[in-house]
From TrEMBL:
Residues 1-133 form the CFA20 domain. It comes from Pseudictyota dubia. This is CFA20 domain-containing protein. Pfam families: CFA20_dom. The lineage of its organism: Eukaryota, Sar, Stramenopiles, Ochrophyta, Bacillariophyta.
Length: 133
């Protein structure tokens, strides 16, 4: 497939990232519950983070990384392992389901998405449900 990609590389995954929206005082306000990302595995450390708002009006963060082995749920952040196949991966993240299972609350909207090194990004989008290709 001929398409443009964005490559994120750095020795420190915590300080090499892109975020949307760029302004930390603003939020995305996206109500669609499925986050889909097409990411290339560069066989290095990689992590991404999504901040959502729930029906208790609390911001919750979900962080998935390929260098963590256990899931941890804390009041404001849930960290979990993620395994990437070789080459391109389609990561499908059901934000509504994760919010309900981790916190027992209902997903309202996505406030922020942060993608950290090391990966190639072909596409990131939200949808109302998962569609077959």
């Amino acid at each position: 497939i001929q398409s443009s990609v964005l490559e994120l590389c750095g020795t420190n995954v915590s300080t090499t990232y892109i975020t949307c929206p760029a302004n930390p005082k603003k939020t995305l306000g996206i109500k669609l519950p499925f986050l889909v990302m097409i990411i290339k595995n560069l066989k290095k450390y990689f992590t991404f983070e999504v901040t959502v708002l729930d029906d208790k009006n609390v911001n919750r963060r979900f962080r998935a990384s390929n260098y963590q082995s256990t899931t941890r749920v804390k009041p404001f952040i849930c960290t979990m392992p993620m395994r990437l196949d070789e080459g391109w991966n389609q990561i499908q993240f059901n934000l509504s389901d994760f919010t309900r299972r981790a916190y027992g609350t209902n997903y309202i909207e996505t406030q922020r998405v942060q993608i950290h090194a090391n990966c190639r990004i072909r596409r990131i989008y939200f949808s109302d449900r998962l569609y077959s290709e």
